[in-house]
Amino acid sequence: MRKQRNIVRYVTGLILALVASAGAAFSQAPNTWTAIGPSSGYVNSFAIDPANPNVMYVGTYYGVFKTTDGGASWKNSSLPPTHAIAVDPVNPNNVYAGTNPGGSCSGKYPLFKSIDAGATWSNATSPPDCDISVIVLNPYAPTTIFAQSTILWEVNGDPVGLWKRVLESNKQAFATEFVQRSRFVSAYPTSMSSEQFVDALFANAGVTPSASDRTAVLNEFAFTATTGDVAARSRALRRVAENSTLAQQEFSRAFVLMQYFGYLRRNPNDPPELTLDFQGYDFWLTKLTQFNGDYIGAEMVKAFLVSTEYRQRFGP
């Protein structure tokens, strides 16, 4: 295994030497090999960003090095000794590093993933082996990853479980941006007290909160002097937006609307609706609410399927 790895290092080193800054050395002197670095440690592996050939990643004894200028300069990531590198061909911001933490496998994570092109790294769900020498991403389904250690391993789906953290980060960023929009600030000025701000949010959502739900939102302002604190406003907005009562209300509205779109293939206020308004929609929404969202108990789907309109328009 060590002899094979030394051969791989040698071949990889030759390939790296061929790839000069912006391809200049190769294009000017095809038969000349130019060392482009990095100068620290053995080069075990490398990968090139498919969207930008000047961006390269190198796995060395001292971790991952990255260049964004074709090898003119390198920056180290401080990962454990790295033997394998792979870049997602669909989203080059996703980079995988196979390492050898050394010592016992217990509690070690040889597989790392970066979702920001190597700026930061997180432990990934790793195969039960301490040394990953090759990483290959399925080019047609990059979330299927193969890792070679003493044997070949495969993982399907998101190998890191980072999607929840990415989603949470995106939610936080959106809420922060949203509460700074001029329309939001005009509707909920920073001159409001925390009680006024929170009550206005719930009122606009059409939700009468429980005492505990209201207190939880108010507590977001516990350490702020005013409601002008952007972080507190965004957290409070999210608590209201993710309130379970509001979620059920919006689900029910969407579910009733779906019956009109799916079975009757029209808007609730379109002909042949007798009153050409939302009386029918409101009737079914009220009934679904009375049954706490239980559309089977409310016999909603059944009612649409046996309705005269449905049978005359779409029946046999």
Can you offer a commentary on this structure?
The relative contact order is 0.06. The protein is built from eleven helices and eleven strands. The chain is 39% helix and 15% strand. It has helices spanning 2-18, 24-28, 163-178, 182-187, 194-205, 211-218, 230-241, 244-264, 279-290, 300-305, 308-314; strands at residues 43-48, 56-60, 63-67, 75-76, 82-87, 95-99, 111-114, 122-123, 134-137, 145-148, 152-155. Residues 1-28 have low confidence and may be disordered. Helix 6 packs antiparallel against helix 7 (230-241). The strands form three sheets. Strands 1-2-3-4 form a four-stranded antiparallel sheet. The longest helix has 21 residues, at 244-264.
Largest sheet: 4 strands, antiparallel
Which consecutive residue ranges, at least 5 long each, have pLDDT under 50? 1-28
Strand coverage percent: 5-15%
Walk across the major sheet and give the strand order: 1-2-3-4
What Rg, in angstroms, do the CA atoms define?
A: 29 Å
Break the fold down into its secondary structure elements and pairings:
Blueprint: H1 2-18, H2 24-28, E1 43-48, E2 56-60, E3 63-67, E4 75-76, E5 82-87, E6 95-99, E7 111-114, E8 122-123, E9 134-137, E10 145-148, E11 152-155, H3 163-178, H4 182-187, H5 194-205, H6 211-218, H7 230-241, H8 244-264, H9 279-290, H10 300-305, H11 308-314
Antiparallel strand pairs: 1-2, 2-3, 3-4, 5-6, 6-7, 7-8, 9-10, 10-11
